[in-house]
């Protein structure tokens, strides 16, 4: 194998040795299978190709200083996938089977888990797709669950460094009562133009307001938003954002640190009052926000005056990473340690 430059990995696909697959046929899930083939052979009328019966997840495995391998909150991802399955009428994969698949795929690709010192991780990408043929708009009767892994570095430029974001009003990623709370591919298709606009203009990512009123903060591209002021961690309550497991973990850590935690609609204007803010997610971890520009209204909400991450964001980031890598006790029982 060609030497991997662990410290300079980007967030991209690298071929690994194995993926894990599981098929749903005749009303039940089969056994997990280890596979070394990268491609899928599916029917051209599969519902995932036409009607978007596709769900995915994203989580990470970490190699600790102690050499142990840890997967962060796989049960939470299993539950979110089940919620997505209910949302687009796909059969739910039981939590136990999901976690077993995570273990199996990580162990089989152990040589791709970045070393502790690199600060990189193994990204795990489960997907569940409708493979049964349909021409009418109906759910499939057959499904396939696949999990692959790939070693990754930071999603946003510089890792834990501040970045600028831009409010995009021309496109919505999800409708108020649409599929925003589910991790379905369609939401990401809907985000591609906004994301390109933001990147072309030199921003790290697009920033969404609520689709109905364009008044409240929704999400930060493929990450949740949080703001900090007056010793309070504030994150949006919205029917169109993905319930981030990272955000949920940060809310708990913030509370543990003695911060107040608020989940409520956040009007755009409130951006001017935050002492710190960040985008958070599995890929992003915490990506501190330097400023958020609202080009149509000629406004720029500068969050970090000196361009550096704020102290509370840094404390949260260090605490979360310490739990993920096994440097600090896992008091909330979040981590699955592989044996
Ligand atoms: N929001 C969106 C739209 C995402 O794609 C993600 C990534 O999974 C997140 C938020 C963050 O969620 P999590 O922390 O569970 O990775
Ligand atoms: C994640 O944070 O896991 C994501 O899914 C973000 C993006 C790569 C879709």
CATH architecture of the largest domain: Alpha-Beta Barrel
Note the gap between the termini: 25 Å
- The mean pLDDT is 96
Our count of helices gives 6
Shape: globular
Estimated radius of gyration: 20 Å
Total number of beta strands = 17
Instruction: List bound small molecules.
Output: pyridoxal-5'-phosphate, 2-OXO-4-methylpentanoic acid
Query: Which fold name corresponds to the CATH topology of the largest domain?
Result: D-amino Acid Aminotransferase, Chain A, domain 2
**% residues in beta strands:** 25-35%
Structural class by sheet pairing and helices: alpha+beta
| CATH class bucket of the largest domain | Alpha Beta
Topology as H/E string? EEEHEEEHHEEEHEEEHEEEEHE
Low-confidence stretches: none
Number of domains: 2
Q: Can you tell me the CATH superfamily of the largest domain?
A: D-amino Acid Aminotransferase, subunit A, domain 2
Helix fraction?
10-25%
Largest sheet properties: 9 strands, antiparallel
Family: Belongs to the class-IV pyridoxal-phosphate-dependent aminotransferase family.
Catalytic activity: L-valine + 2-oxoglutarate = 3-methyl-2-oxobutanoate + L-glutamate; L-leucine + 2-oxoglutarate = 4-methyl-2-oxopentanoate + L-glutamate; L-isoleucine + 2-oxoglutarate = (S)-3-methyl-2-oxopentanoate + L-glutamate
Keywords: Amino-acid biosynthesis, Aminotransferase, Branched-chain amino acid biosynthesis, Pyridoxal phosphate, Transferase
GO molecular function: L-isoleucine-2-oxoglutarate transaminase activity; L-leucine-2-oxoglutarate transaminase activity; L-valine-2-oxoglutarate transaminase activity
